[in-house]
Amino acid sequence: MNFLMVDGKGDPNTSQEYAEAVEVLFQESYALKFMVKKGSLAIDYGVMPLEGLWWADDMSAFTTGDKSNWLWTMMIMKLDFVTSEMVEKAMRDVKKRKNPAAV
Question: For the residues of 4-68, what is the DSSP string, one character each?
Fold first, then answer.
């Protein structure tokens, strides 16, 4: 399985970095979806769900509730027929349209 992924740090409830990471993952995922749908593959598929990995350098951050020290990788699975060239094009297109910091 291959994923679009963004790494970051901070409280997912308040961190601008987290919000931007999730936003760019969905922007790229939908750009890929429509690239595939309108392209030669002509496959219409649903964007996969957001997934996340969470950890901290000091694992007590999970018991004290201090989410500001959480480290995370947010990700959305890409389907096998989506090539790395398609991903690069989607990233360029998203950056050109929105220029998000997370790209």
Answer: EEEEEES-TTT-HHHHHHHHHHHHHHHHHHHHHHHSTT----PPPPEEEEEE-SSTTHHHHT-GG
| Residue 24: both structure tokens together | 């760019």
User: What structural domains does the chain harbor?
Assistant: 2-97 (3.20.80.10)
Helix pair 16-38, 84-97: axis angle to 10 deg: 120
Encoded tokens for 60:
């007590």
Task: Provide the whole-model pTM.
Answer: 0.88
Percent of the chain residues topping a pLDDT of 90? 81
State pLDDT tens for residues 24-72: 999 999 999 999 999 999 999 999 999 999 999 988 888 877 899 999 9
Distance (Å, rounded) from C-alpha 89 to C-alpha 48? 19
